[in-house]
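User: Structure please.
Assistant: Input sequence and predicted structure:
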Amino acid sequence: MRKEFERVTPESVGIRSKAIMDYIDALERSNTEMHGLMIMRHGKICAEGWWQPFAPGLRHGLQSHTKTYAATAVGIAYTEGILRLDERLIDIFPEESPAQPSENLKKLTVCDVLCMGCGMDTMPCPTEHWIRDFLHTPVVHEPGTTYMYNSVGSSILGAIVRKKTGEGLHEYLTKRLFRKIGIDPENIRWYYMPDGMETGGGGMLATTEDNLRLMKLYADGGVWEGERILAEDYVRLATTNQNDSATESINNPEASDNFLGYGFQIWMCKPKGVYRADGAMGQFTIVCPDQDMLIAINETAIGAHWAQSTLDITWEFLKQIQDETLCEDSEAARLSERLRRLNLPNPVVRQQSSLAAQLNGRVFTVESGVLSAEVYNFMSGKDICPVETFSFLFNSYGCEWITQSAEESRKIFVSTIGSRFANIVGGQQDQTRLLVCDGAWTEECVFEMNLRWVETCFTKRLTFRFADGKVYIEDVDNNAFRSDGPRCIVAR
């Protein structure tokens, strides 16, 4: 049973409702797609909203925001006296370490891994022996003296907890974090490393409020309702600069808020004292100590510039925060109403094609290329099972797209009436199951489908061009972790 946060008007905590509306306007005008927003000040929620079909209780892929959860598990183990920050990795993992470790590897500690100071220039691709592979990766620089963003190292943090406690990240955090701070562990999902370990470097799905609760623990110095969960010194180290990250500018020059230093899987920010948990494509939970405020955001931002745009807009919003209580006015009511009505733009409606009736029930067999409704997630550790055959059943509402793979048959409902149809696909073991779809005939012989996996940032557009007894399919998605461009499939 979790204690709900108090909900109040922005003016009661010194924020003008108009400032929040202007903030939302700026976010919506930017090149990002907003999914969820929560603003807390003085421990009270003063604004929250989700752009439908996203929703407050719906988990969302966190990408590297997961890293802060993994670091929190290490921090709890440190607080409990189970591990030390100066412990060497070769002592924690003697079986996986080289028989003759290098001098730099001998120096590599838990603290170095926490602050991206592993001293490596590369990180290994995950295999079943990924811990061994990590420890056999050359430690080129003395640990703690250089910075390299190392997601496999972040997953090592979970492996350290597992080695010390015998529990994986989910089991360990359920008892020591989730249930204590009001996160429902049954709603959490994970992607896994090849050996079954949770992917601490980016494999978690949680709600916007889950992330806000996590970072509130840090904002409150590691104490939750009078109980110390994280040691005070751990929180201080985690939320202050432990490793200069200026070299991020080499590979990511547009992400200027990444050049300002790194704590324990937490980034430093441009405004003095501000820090954030950060996941790719714009999963932010920002802590602003001077304003006693937290801002949690889920969005889809493609590329560093778009995510940086969200941060820049947020820093402008912070400048408007005042300390005194403000008089309430009609803007508060208007903001409340607006937050209840947030929505992604509706799909475009187009005239149906006369070809639709001729296609009904015809079975197409994929001849070349890989066809799937899914968007490949590099954190999943598994390949997409391709569609072997498919057919359409068109009607006045849209169509049923019926697919058959080696694993299963799926019937996906696609709206063509200016709405989106929701589909629950897969099984309980799947990390993401909610798929919403819309489609339209863009030409007499071209049908386009938009597939949105709502528990992620990922969308896919499949364009079916019917000609010469075949269908030529173009597959385009917004996956920020691949750059192979549109994929072409042919079926007969």
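The chain is about 25% helix and 25% strand.
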